[in-house]
Specification:
- The structure is a single chain.
- The chain is globular and about 50 Å long.
- It is an alpha/beta fold and about 300 residues long.
- The chain starts with a helix and ends with a helix.
- It has one domain: Alpha/Beta hydrolase fold, catalytic domain (Rossmann fold), CATH 3.40.50.
- An 8-stranded mixed sheet has the order 1-2-4-3-5-6-7-8, sandwiched between helices.
- It has 10 helices and 8 strands.
Length: about 300
C-alpha cells in the first residue's frame, strides 16, 4: 500500500522533529513503574472553563461527559481519550477538543470512562456504550442534531471501534452513527507483528503495550474475542472510517489490518500513513500532527449531511 504524496513529503521534517522530541520522551517507560507513577507521567490537564459537564445515569454510577458546543451544531463528535485504558481523562485535551468543535461545527462530547486496573474490561467499554446510547436517544432534542461520529486515539480508538460494534449489534438507532475517527488505534490485543517487534519504539514499546494489556484485561479472558480485539469482529455495516497511524508506531499493523478488513467487509475506510511518525504524534509538536488533525477535522465535517 502506497503513502500519498502529501504525507510522504513530511518524512524528513518528521525525522528531525522526532530527534528534538527524543530527550523528552525516551525515558517515559510506563512498564517499569506503578500505575500511580504512570498517571503522574501524563501531561498536565488544561481544563477550559466554558466546557459543560453532563452526568449520564448508569447502573454502575453516573458517567460524566465533558462537552463543547457551538451555537448551531451540525453533528456530535463523541471523543474517547487514550491512555491504555489506565491513564488519562475526559479533560486532558480540552484545547484540542474545543478546536475540533469549532473546526467541525460539532458538539464534542468527551467520555470520562472508568479506568483499569481498578475497573478492568468490560467496565470502560460499558461506559462508552452507555454514553453513546444516551447520545443516540438525546442528541436531537438537546442539540438539534442526530448525526454522531465516534473517535479517539490509541485505546480511545479501540473503545470507539468496540462501541460502534456494540451499537450495531444491539441498538436500533445505530444508523445515526455516521463516521469513525480511529487514530493510531489498538485493534488486536493478542499482538500484531508490529506490536511484537516494537521493543525499540519511542513513546510505547512492546513491553509497555503488554503492561497496559495486563492491567486492562482480566486473567481468564481470551485476547481474540471481538469485544477485546475488534480486528476479529464481523466488520460489516460500519460507517465510513478514517484510520491514522505513523510508520514508527508499534500499532502500525493494527491500522493496516483494520483498514483492509473494513474494506473487505464492504465498509468505507481511508488509511492515512505518516512516514516516521511516532505513536501519539497528533498530540506532539510537529507538521505531521498539524496535517493529521486538519485531515481528521475535514473527515468529521464530511460526515455531516
Amino acid at each position: 500500500m502506497s503513502i500519498d504524496s502529501e504525507l510522504e513529503a513530511l518524512r524528513e521534517q518528521t525525522i528531525e522533529e522526532n530527534e528534538k522530541l527524543r530527550p523528552l520522551i525516551e525515558d517515559r517507560k510506563f512498564h517499569t513503574g506503578t500505575v500511580a507513577e504512570a498517571r503522574q507521567l501524563t501531561l498536565a490537564e488544561t481544563k477550559l472553563e466554558h466546557a459543560v459537564d453532563i452526568s449520564i445515569p448508569s447502573p454502575n454510577g453516573p458517567i460524566l461527559v465533558h462537552t463543547f458546543s457551538p451555537p448551531t451544531p451540525k453533528g456530535v463528535y463523541m471523543h474517547i481519550h487514550g491512555g491504555g485504558w489506565v491513564i488519562g481523562s475526559a479533560f486532558a485535551r480540552d484545547p484540542k477538543l474545543f478546536e475540533i468543535s469549532q473546526q467541525t461545527n460539532s458538539v464534542v462530547v468527551s467520555v470520562d470512562y472508568r479506568l483499569a486496573p481498578e475497573n478492568p474490561h468490560p467496565s470502560g467499554a460499558d461506559d462508552c456504550e452507555i454514553a453513546a446510547t444516551w447520545l443516540l436517544e438525546n442528541s436531537e432534542k438537546k442539540w438539534g442534531t442526530s448525526q454522531i461520529v465516534i473517535g479517539g486515539e490509541s485505546a480511545g480508538a479501540h473503545l470507539a471501534a468496540v462501541t460502534a460494534l456494540r451499537l450495531r449489534n444491539k441498538h436500533s438507532l445505530y444508523k445515526k452513527i455516521v463516521g469513525l475517527n480511529l487514530v493510531y488505534g489498538v485493534f488486536d490485543l493478542s499482538m500484531t507483528p508490529s506490536q511484537r517487534l516494537g521493543n525499540d519504539k519511542l513513546v510505547i514499546s512492546t513491553e509497555t503495550l503488554e503492561w497496559f494489556y495486563n492491567h486492562y484485561l482480566q486473567s481468564n479472558e481470551s485476547r481474540v474475542l471481538p469485544d477485546i480485539s475488534p480486528l476479529y469482529a464481523d466488520l460489516s455495516e460500519l460507517p465510513p472510517a478514517l484510520l491514522t497511524v505513523g510508520t514508527q508506531d508499534p500499532l502500525l499493523d493494527d491500522s493496516l489490518f483494520m483498514a483492509m478488513r473494513l474494506r473487505a467487509a464492504g465498509s468505507e475506510a481511508t488509511l492515512d500513513i505518516y512516514p516516521e511518525a511516532l505513536h501519539g504524534f497528533t498530540v506532539l509538536p510537529g507538521r505531521a500532527a498539524t496535517v493529521a488533525n486538519e485531515r481528521a477535522n475535514q473527515f468529521i465535517s464530511s460526515c455531516w449531511s
